[in-house]
Amino acid sequence: MDDQQVSSVRALSSELCCPWEIAAGQRRRLRKTESVPTGELSNENVHLVTTTEMWEEKTSEATENGKMVVVNFSTPWCKNSRVIASTYCQLANKNPSIVFLTINVEELREFCASWEIKATPTFFFLKDGREVDKLVGANKAELQKKIMAIAASPVKSSH
Predict the structure, then answer these.
(1) pLDDT of residue 7
(2) Tens digits of residue pLDDT in 75-102
(3) Which residue among 39, 63, 82, 108 is least packed, with the fewest CB closer than 10 Å?
């Protein structure tokens, strides 16, 4: 690895929290910080998804209404998940035409494994239920840029 690659890895690791390791089919955290309540990861415009049924309901509703979905896969004890949560909530308040969801990776482990979450926070951007973009890490500027781009673009539903 050259110096530039090492610098890139260091920069990215400062934005990531809670990298996961898969060992013998089991996921485990590589690092843990203090615990905080899950409620900090959502507000009235950010829906905390706690079941797969709720996921289906919210994403189907968004597709039917021609809305984009932004999903924040996070953990409440992760420092970087908490840091970016306030920005995420502010963006949700400013963009009611977008559906904002938050999923606690520890509460829906099997579901999150199907999305191949390797670190938190990880954001997925969905249109008609399909991934159109992804952001790994607590990069506020990049999250704002991606959300502003989808807010500015016309969304056409396939229905």
Answers:
(1) 41
(2) 988 999 999 999 999 999 999 999 999 9
(3) 39
- Structure token pair of residue 22: 């898969």
The rounded distance, in Å, linking the Cα atoms of 128 and 110 is 22
C-alpha 54: how far from chain center: 16
Q: 22: which strand partners?
A: 27
Within 57-150, strands assigned E span 69-74, 99-104, 122-127, 130-136
Indicate whether this model's pTM tops 0.90: no
The residues, any chain, with a CB within 8 Å of residue 157's CB and separated by 6 or more, are 63, 64, 65, 66, 128
Domains of the chain with CATH codes: 38-152 (3.40.30.10)
